[in-house]
Every structure is written in C-alpha cells, then in structure tokens.
What does this fold into?
Amino acid sequence: MREPNELTDDSSEPLSDLELVRLARRGQWDAFESLLERLEPRVFALAMRLLRHRHDAEDVTQQTFVKVIENLEQFREESSVATWVLRIATNLALTAIRRRRPIQTLWNEGAAAGSDDMSSLSRPQFIAHWRDDPADLVGRAEVRQLLEEALDELDEKYRTVFTLRDIEQFSTRETAEILGITENNVKVRLLRARLQLRERLTHTLGDETQRLEPGDH
Amino acid sequence: MNCDELLKALNSYVDGEVDPEICTEFAAHLAGCNPCQVVVDNIRQTITLYRNGQPYPLPPEFHRRLHDVLRAKWQEKFGSSAEPAR
It folds into this structure.
C-alpha cells in the first residue's frame, strides 16, 4: 500500500487520478494540486468549446474545482475521476449558458421543427478527399482557426453534443443524462453536427480537382 | 440501402455500434459508391482533427490565480492540515 508521502517519491510510478483523490480526501493539498495540474487543461478546453468566451470559461473552470474540493467525499468512484470532473464542468457551463439566455430553452428547442429527427438531413454537397492527413493538419495555425470558425457556426445544441460525444468521448447515454434529452436526440444532433462540420472543413481542406458529385442511388 | 439510408446509419457505422445485418448492407453500398466512401472518410477525419487538436492553452496568469484561489479554499476546508506533505 502506498504511503501518503509517496506523492513526492521520484522512484514510484505516477499516482493514478483515483489515488490522488483518496490522498486529497485526507487533506493533502499536494495530491489535489497534482490532480488539478492534470485536469485543468481539459476542463478549460471543454468550457471554452461550450461557452466560446475566455472569461466565462475561466469562471467555470474555477467553479468546477471549487465544487470538486467541496464534494471530494461524495465522489462514489463509479466513474473515472476525469469523467466526474468533466461532468461537473459541463453542468456548470450549461448553467452559465442558460443564465446568459434565460428565455430560450436551448436544449429542447428545435424538436418540433424537425431538427431532432432524421427527416430533413442535409445531404453532403462538397465531396472530395482531403489534400492532407489530419495528423499533418492538426498543428497548423490556419487549420486551428478553421476548426474554431466551423465550431462557432454550429448551432449551440449541436456544438454541445459534438463536444461531449466526439471530443470528450462521453457515451450517448452519459451525454443524454447531462443534457436532459433523449439518447435519440443525442444521436440525431451528433449526426447533424458531424455532417455540418464535415461540409465546412471539406470546402477548405478538400481537393477541388478530385471533387465528386453526390451519389443518387 | 441507398445513399439517404446510408446517411441515417452513418453515425452507428462510424462509432462501430451498427448491428451486423445493417453493417453488411452499409459495407455493400460503400463498396459501390465512391461519394459515400469519401463522406465516411471525411467524417472520420473531422472527428480525428477535433479530438487531437488542443486549441485552448490555459492562460498562465489564470493558472496562477486558479491555484491561489483553490489553495485558499482548501485551507478553509482542511485548516492547518492543508499544508503540503513535504
């Protein structure tokens, strides 16, 4: 069994997130700070993706870790520590968005207009292989800018589902629970988000000389 | 399966959650439809690009402020036992 002071023992393997939480429950700030160092970039990035505003994302990041401190004893170890923390962050970000726009029912709006069923999916229009591999694209500043713009153009409810499912890799069920919508709504919103982002990115990254006409069979 | 039906089943296929019978139909359509193949490839590339990108570095001054605020919160909760175990 690891002793508490093993946190500073260079010869040991890094402690897992769960081990850090258990040490933090005993009041060890160092353990909590190590966990904070690991998770704060993910929490901040998630908050930025959902809120699209740096100061709001900073507020949500701070609120998230304050809540983690307050609720250390309540963590039941049924999910990973990261999932627990990211769920807290997501719920706080959603609360912040709702506070910004109190009149709209963001997460349920649109169902009546057919946006949460498969009846009116936009067919792909610009179809072409990309000129470069994603591994080569990811580090380029202009591509980062493109990813930002495409995400900005997405409707908030699609962006939220895409962020939770495809970037943070929550399951469909977890995403539905966090957002308070059905699993089917999650699936349809994710499909719409993916199709819209694909269209937008392919316009810029696709090889125009090898563009294909949409299939019709 | 036609192109529109493939579009509706696309998520399940990309996520590996499609049932085997639909998967066979899906693969058969893809084998004969180059545009749909490219769309599926594009979707996978889109997800990869977003998943691997990290466009939001933590602002250094916020990092410092966050740690200060949380250390104060920690001391409020744990009192003198909040001292680092060095």
The two ends of chain A are 63 Å apart (CA to CA). Residues 109-113 of chain A have pLDDT under 50 and may be disordered.
